[in-house]
Amino acid sequence: MTDSAPLSVLYVRDHLQAAGGSTYLLDTLPRFDPIRVKPVLYVLGPLEPDHHPAVLDQLDVTFTDRAPGDWRRPVDLWRLARRVRPDLVVLSGPRSMVQGGLLAALLGVPSLLHLNFVIEFSPAQVRLQRLLRRRGQHVIAVSEAVRRWAADALALDAAAIERIYPVRDWHRHGDPAHGARARLRHACAVPDGAIALLLVGRLLLAEKGQDVMLHALRALLRDRPDTVLLLAGDGPDRHRVVELAQALGVEHAVRLLGYRQDVPELLAACDLLVVPSTCEEAFGLVALEAHAAGRPVIVSAAGGLTEIVSHGVNGCVVPRGDAPALANAIRRLLADPALVRRLVERGRIDVERFGFDAHMTTLTDLFARVVARHGR
Description:
Strand content: 15-25%
Mean pLDDT: 91
Radius of gyration: 22 Å
Strand order of the largest sheet: 3-2-1-4-5-6-7
Number of helices: 14
Number of domains: 2
Order of helices and strands: EHEEHEHEHEHEHEHHEHEHEHEEHHH
CATH class of the largest domain: Alpha Beta
Low-confidence stretches: none
CATH topology of the largest domain: Rossmann fold
C-alpha cells in the first residue's frame, strides 16, 4: 500500500440500533471522500429485524450473530481485519473498546476511541485504555460533558481528548414537502387545532424520561385537553409506558409511533419538541434537528443537551426529572408566540455551527494525523 492510497479505516461498533449514535454513523460513513478514506464497519451484534436502513446496502458492513462469550467472535474479527488490512481502527462502544482495541494492538495499528456514551468503566477497561494509549490510541468525545467525564473515568488529561460534535444532514430538515404537516397529523390522529408535542427516543424510562413527560402531560391536559403527545421510538419499556399512561389517565392523548425514519416530517407535524432525558446524555442530536426544522425545543439539564440548548436563548432547559417544571415550560411557550419565534430564529442560526462538510473534513484530517503519527 502506498501513502497515496486511501486510508483503510475499520469501525468496530457494539450495535446498530434506531438511535442517535447509530444514525450519526450511518450518515457519516457513506460521505467520506473515497480518495482519502475507505471505511469498513463491523458490528458486534446481529442486524435488528426492524432496523434495516437503505444506506446499509451502500456500505461494507458485517454483523455477527455470535453469542457474547463465543470464542469465534474475535476470530471472525481477525479474519475481517486480514481482508481489510486497516490503517486505523475506530472503536465505538464498551465492548468494541476491548475487542477492537486488542485487535488494533495485535495488528500494530493505531486506534481511535470515539466516546459517544457515558458509562462506568471497570478497572480492567481503564487499564486496557492506558495500555492502548501507549500504543497510539487517540480519544475523541462528542461533547464537553463527555470529555470531562472521560478525563475523570480514564484518568486522562482533558486536553488529550479531542472534542468533535456530531452532526446531521440538515438539508433533510428544511421546509417540509407541501402538505406534509397536515398528512402526518392526520396519520397520527392529531385533531385539527390540537397541540402536538413530540418526544423522540428509545422507550427506556431510566434514560429518556418518557415517564416524566407523561406526568407533565397529565398536568397539561387540565389546561389544554386537546394536547397530544407523539412518542417516536421503541424499546424495552414499551409496556411500562402504556401501563403508566393508563394509570395516569392520559392514554387517550398518547400516540405510540414506534421506530420512525421520518423524524424531519414528524418535526414538521409537531408544535414543540421535548427531550426530558434523565440520564447523562452524551449529546442529543434530535435537539439540533428541531433547530434545523424551526421547532421550539425544551430539554432537561442532562449532559451534552445543555451544549445545544441555552435557556431563554434558543430553547428552554428544565431540571432533570422535574415534571412540573417541564409542564410549566411547555405552557410558557404555548402562551408566548413572540418568544417562540425568537427562540426558533436563534436555533436556526446556531445549527449552522454543526455543518456536515466541515465535520467530514475534520474527521478525515484527524484520521490522517493519527495514522501519520504512528506510521502506515
